[in-house]
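Reply to dn_fold:

You asked what the input looked like. This is it:
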Amino acid sequence: MKKIKTLRPAMTVLALGLGLGLGLFQGTLHAADYPAAQAITVVVPFSAGGGADNAARIIAKALGEVSGQTVVVDNKAGASGAIGAALVARAKADGYTVLYDASSFAINPALRKLPYDPAKDFIAVSQAISVPNILVAAPSSPYNSLADFMNAARQKPGRLTYASYGPGSLAQMATELLKADAKFDAVHVPYKGGAPAIVDVMGGQVDVYFANAASSINYVKGGKLKALAVSSAKRMPDLPDVPTVAESGIKGFEVTEWNGFFLPAGTAPETVQKLQDLVQKALALPATRASLEKLGLTPVGSSSAAFTGFVAAERKRWDAVVKANGITVQ
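and this is what came back:
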């Protein structure tokens, strides 16, 4: 009997060891099979029809082609991306719930208390695209250049307005930076996404908007929006007659939006690597590149390590801008 009693703890330890080993083995198998088990949901934390959404849908289609798996885009707009990001932070870390976020991912921590820690609760997988913003106005707007708008804003401080796709968005940050550099004032009008902002700018309800090129370039080409300037260091190839902000008198001004993929912390390294590889393959498809470039977007497809460093640098940059200019969100 004594022998039996002494053997039971040993058997229990053995059984636990086998169970743990089996669990680890199954986890490895699941990572090895990724993404065969189920459809991938790409959470876009902005409204449908906006710049990030347009790009995400193009890339999601390509991801489906290269992975052989269904890829679904799910819009969860609000709080400049924080609502959708929080949803993904709480999701199962199996690679099947993916965050497709924008520059606001790096801006939000400087502006608001978040229900997640961007540095600890996510794994940066790959930067998908880089894109300039276009400062747009209604076709009927009296402003035909950035200089026109800035001069009017200086003459009528606090009376002109600018739109953004949400408090703390890059559209707000870029305009606040422009206001500080050019020494003029304008009132911020935030929207829940880029699409409704564009509608009101078209109608003249808001004076200007630093719109993501993906959501605005076709409207500019179609004459439904007037482009005053672009935020990139160089002119856009598809809008060669539109000057940069720097060319318009604000030397050194450059703000470029970015989009990228993130996974919840705790996702297996093998799964992160596989999704990184799939994103890179998707962005390498000629049809995908052509569709993105048509919207003024530059495909990137960086490594997880490179994107992690890039996001950290972006957080540092915008934190400094927020503090230097006393920017707050209500």
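The chain has a mean pLDDT of 90.
Hope that clears it up.
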